[in-house]
Amino acid sequence: MNQALWVAKTGLDAQQTRMSVVSNNLANVNTTGYKKGRPVFEDLLYQTIRQPGAQATQDAQLPSGLMLGVGVRTVSTEKLFQQGDMVLTDNSLDVAIDGRGFFQILLPDGNLGYTRDGSFQINADGEVVMSNGYPLQPGLVIPEETQSISIGADGTVSAQLPGQVDPQQLGQIQLADFINPAGLQPIGENLFLETAASGAAQESAPGINGLGEARQGMLETSNVNIAEELVNMIETQRSYEANTKALSTADAMIQYANNNLGR
Question: Which residues, in sequence order, are bridge partners of residue 119?
């Protein structure tokens, strides 16, 4: 088989993966706290025909070699955790993280998930939960008769109750950070899981140990840049077309050789 056919095929696979990542970014352009992804590629092993530095003669070395690449493959789809824009919502339970850190969420299996989505709500038991019902950790319970809720930059949550002059402190939001956030595993529902690559979660109050501060009444938007993703889409399409052209050209060369054998 003409090696160019296989090389072009790996190029098509790589560009198809890139298009999937770009499409997912665009689909989540309005997802709260979404972090865009990007594919990372590497070239495959090379067939070494002549080794660089080999002896050409007794007194001469080859200044370069003859090595043929066999294509490309996708290594990873990396998440980029740059801060997204913050928008004002005036909802007292909306909280954005201004800087590093993740909210901690208790999952149904008992493990902790991590998110940048601070669009919290209250369930029937007064617990502060995500929109999917998973509770914030450490848990916060809002009294039924609460008139207003205040969340400080350090994550302190207090409620104004009827007949009381001073607000009642309910608890404090704790954030988690990782030495390598790109190593977190996205599982959907705006959640990430800790992995060996991310390192262990380091818990602290907002504004301490390099963590961002809590901003009440605001949400962090997706960090997807639509114009950038549209450019990436065009680049991907052109690269896919080029690899398709290489595939058809290699096929035409094989067909030409077959048709002219024995003439």
Answer: 94
Sign of the CA dihedral with 122 first, then 123, 126, and 129 last: negative
Instruction: Count other Cβ atoms within 10 Å, centred on residue 256.
Output: 10
Q: Does residue 36 sit in helix, strand or coil? A: coil
At 1-38, the pLDDT tens digits run 578 888 999 999 999 999 999 999 999 999 999 999 99
The 8-class DSSP code of residue 167 comes to: P
Q: What residue segments make up the domains of the chain, in order of their start?
A: 3-81+224-260, 86-220
CB 173 within 8 A of CB 136: yes
Phi, psi of 259 (to 5 degrees): -70, -20
pLDDT tens digits along 98-108: 999 999 999 99
Q: What angle do CA 257, 260, 262 make, to 5 degrees?
A: 115
- The radius of gyration of the chain's CA atoms, rounded to the nearest angstrom, is 27
The neighbouring-strand residues paired with 38 are: 78
Amino acid symbol at 74: T
Rounded CA-CA distance 213/137 in Å is: 17
For the whole model, what pTM was predicted? 0.87
CB 114 within 8 A of CB 102: yes
Residue labelled with tokens 């380091």: 202
CA atoms of 35 and 249, how far apart (whole Å): 39
* Identity at 151, one-letter amino acid code: I
